[in-house]
Amino acid sequence: MKTIALIMAGGKGERFYPASRNLLPKQFLSLGADNETMIQKTVNRIRDLVYPQDIFVLTNKNYLSLVKEQLKDVPTENIVLEPLSKNTAPAIELGVEIAKRKYDDAKVIVLPSDHIIKDEVEFRRILKMATQFVENKESILTIGIKPTEPNDGYGYIKISDSQEISKVAEFKEKPTIEVAKQYVESGNYLWNAGMFIFTIKSIDNAFKKYMSNQHKLLTESLDNFPKVESISIDYGIMEKADNVYCIKGDFAWDDVGSWNALKRINGEDENQNTILNDKTVLVNSTNVTIKGTNKKLITGVGLKDIVIVETDDVILVANKNELSDIKKLTAKIKEKQLDEYL
Amino acid sequence: MKTIALIMAGGKGERFYPASRNLLPKQFLSLGADNETMIQKTVNRIRDLVYPQDIFVLTNKNYLSLVKEQLKDVPTENIVLEPLSKNTAPAIELGVEIAKRKYDDAKVIVLPSDHIIKDEVEFRRILKMATQFVENKESILTIGIKPTEPNDGYGYIKISDSQEISKVAEFKEKPTIEVAKQYVESGNYLWNAGMFIFTIKSIDNAFKKYMSNQHKLLTESLDNFPKVESISIDYGIMEKADNVYCIKGDFAWDDVGSWNALKRINGEDENQNTILNDKTVLVNSTNVTIKGTNKKLITGVGLKDIVIVETDDVILVANKNELSDIKKLTAKIKEKQLDEYL
Fold it and tell me: I need a labelling partner for A17 at 20 to 30 A (CA). Which of A3, A165, A232, B113 fits?
């Protein structure tokens, strides 16, 4: 059975403002020292497993030209445009319906387009094992990342035993930091990374059973997409189905959730600083992350826990501990009618 | 008797990096919302008291074109070029010698070119009183600023009585902050602002008496300038002469000693932020000072006590409490052979 991939590339990635913009979300950015963008890395990472003609990209119509430009070998007919942003359940079913035009059945790997994976060999080993599993057993498989720290920013998956692939006991929404600590100590909880593996047949059955309204509308006509409810695949299927399994992943995954990820991706110098700019001079500064345009000398004096991002038209200086407020910043920019900077 | 002015404009103003540069020191910058530079403000402030042809500017040869451009009505022959940087005593005698070519005697006002004075009417009243005093009495008069706070960054002048003009009891070098508090509480100490008033005759006598070597060399030939000792007028004359007086000044003086001065000069908004940039959006930020090129949107999130300065080729982000380390920054830039940014 063929293996195909659904690349989820409809997100806005606002937390990477000002590098990410309304018309240039995070997945189309390079956040490392090389020039490869996140979505390019996502596709290149699975080249050994999936042919380019079997990669389907789900994205927003505004990003069509970006996808075409960045993923030149993905056929244009495989770029699935969501007429408006829905959540993951409608998007995945839309992708599956498009894939069904080509294949009656196939093993499907669903991958976010804006994550970083450092150990790609291990990642591919897990994917291979996962696709074999779903081929042999009607099931929906999710990848659970072995936590490296208590983190209250992720959802957790409680597994029922310690095998490499185990039945999911329960999905848990983002916990408090205290609860996250208990999860990590127990060893029975993994991070939910939004990566799924199933066959067309098994997910089709699940949509029919657990999201019958959406399934009816979308099998009737894809033009019904705007009518379906906006709901996550986790909530719509995973938490309800009884054939959901989890495969343990331990391949240095990062969801690149904020500018703080730059340090994890690119490393740090002896003062815990991460510099992505040609010319930079810092004095008495620690835990500073800088991403510039390489056009200016960027300097810092007496800084601690600071991110500096320079683009061609915006400079951001932010406290690393308050990066969640970047949403407030973009809201305020809109409020001030400075939309050309969004 | 004529009143002339010696404007001291040879300083480097490194503490205003990256706005100040090797070839563009602080006195030639505008640090307020208007476009008038510090040296232009200095000259315009005394227009009612001194004719342009009686203004002499002491500067470094590298800054000749800047002075000509910014002070168009000061005659070129009044621009006195120091072939190399000496301290204030040689510079003042050099200026006085040039002035002597025009006037046998005159009342001389010596002013730094990089200070801000908010109450200009009061300032001119003080200067008028000062010039009258030195015309009537062979003396050297210094302006002492009424302290508004204990400040360990200034030298202090101890006065001998509470009159508006009193004999100087003692000059004090920069004190510790504790000693500065005692000075301010006592009411007998004023800030030394580097502003002096005397006649050509009286300062000539003082140079002859207290700095005879320099006086001999410079009256012999101004070409001897490089041979004289580098020494401040405070140390060479003021602390030694017995006819030194102090006039109290209370005209909202600011020596513009660091980027922190921008807030004092330009005021602050309700979050204690001072913004000198067309488009700026801050979220949850207090005591932030921003000076930009007006070309980019400058944004901040969760910042406290931060200065952001953007020029055409440099960005500086600095902790307001560590601005004295800007010297270390420029040293490090030099060390890294990035001299084009100095």
Answer: A232
Q: Does residue B211 have a pLDDT over 80?
A: yes
Query: Letter for the amino acid at B239?
Result: E
Chain B interface mutation, best of A289, A315, A323, A329, highest count of B Cβ atoms under 10 Å:
A315
What distance lies between CA A241 and its chain's CA centroid? 23
What distance in Å separates the CA atoms of residue A219 and residue A61, rounded to the nearest whole number?
Answer: 21
Tell me if chain A has a CB within 8 Å of the CB of B292: yes
Residue with tokens 């019958």: A212
Nearest chain A residue to B340 by CA distance is A297
Cβ–Cβ gap A284/B313 under 8 Å: no
**CB A247 within 8 Å of CB A130:** yes
pLDDT tens digits, one per residue of B74-107: 999 999 999 888 899 999 999 999 999 999 999 9
Helices B212-220 and B200-210, packing angle to 10 deg: 120
Contact between chains at B302 and A321 (C-beta distance less than 8 A): yes
Nearest to B329 among A283, A295, A318 (CB): A283
Tokens of residue A232, six digits: 């996550």
Chain B contacts of A281, Cβ < 8 Å? 329, 332-333, 336, 338
Q: A18 touching B, CB under 8 A?
A: yes
Out of A99-108, A200-209, B30-39, B199-208, pick the least confident.
B30-39
How many beta-carbon pairs under 8 angstroms link A with B?
131
The ipTM is 0.90
| Per-residue confidence band for B34, with pLDDT thresholds at 50, 70 and 90 | confident
Tell whether the torsion through CA atoms of B256, B261, B262 and B267 is positive or negative: negative
